[in-house]
Design brief:
This protein is α+β, with helices and mostly antiparallel strands. The chain has one domain. The chain has three helices and eleven strands; from the N terminus they run H-H-E-E-H-E-E-E-E-E-E-E-E-E. Strands 1, 2, 3, 4, 5, 6, 8, 9 and 11 form a nine-stranded mixed β-sheet that branches. The protein has a two-stranded antiparallel ribbon with strand order 7-10.
């Protein structure tokens, strides 16, 4: 009887571990980035400069795949909110949803504490710079590619600071340091 209980316990443990691994390997639909009933910058009907920090927090809780934070100037109206995508999405997913990026920051390299290895990261800008996407890949090949994992997406209210003028490049497609400048960052 003890042997049967042990076998059943191991089988159930294997099913739980296997189910979690499969669940984490499946990317959620990029449709979770849809703006909803407002123009970009907007996420799920939440718009910086219009919606409150609490409305944003409530929507993050409902979606439950992302975590996030929002900032305001003391009046509870979110002037910036950030979705932490936990690496669920790729850069290809975001570009399919948002369209072609307008600007690209330098290709940064350094040692990633998250990946515990050398990593390449980049920021891309959409909607006139009001949406900033941060992506990375755990290798030191300085190239921008569609398989990069998205770490976060920031949405800014019109009039808030966006990409640094003169420090970003126009979108020229996916490519390496032959297309985009490199910079060194420790993160």
């Amino acid at each position: 009887m003890a042997a049967l209980t042990g076998v059943l316990f191991l089988a159930c443990t294997g099913l739980v571990v296997g189910g979690r691994a499969i669940g984490r390997s499946i990317s959620p639909s990029p449709a979770l980035l849809e703006p909803g009933d407002c123009e970009q910058p907007c996420w799920q009907g939440i718009q910086p400069g219009v919606s409150t920090r609490e409305e944003f927090a409530q929507q993050v809780r409902e979606v439950d795949l992302y975590s996030g934070r929002a900032t305001d100037y003391g009046d509870s109206i979110a002037v910036m909110f950030e979705l932490s995508t936990r690496g669920w999405l790729t850069l290809a997913d975001v570009i399919r949803e948002f369209g072609t990026p307008e600007r690209v920051d330098c290709l940064a390299w350094g040692h990633s504490t998250a990946a515990q290895s050398p990593a390449t990261s980049v920021r891309l800008y959409f909607a006139g710079g009001l949406i900033e996407v941060s992506a990375m890949r755990a290798d030191d090949a300085l190239r921008l590619s569609p398989d990069m994992r998205v770490r976060s997406i920031r949405y800014y209210a019109p009039g808030e600071p966006t990409y640094p003028v003169g420090k970003t490049s126009k979108w020229r497609g996916f490519g390496s340091v032959r297309v985009y400048p490199a910079c060194h960052m420790l993160y």
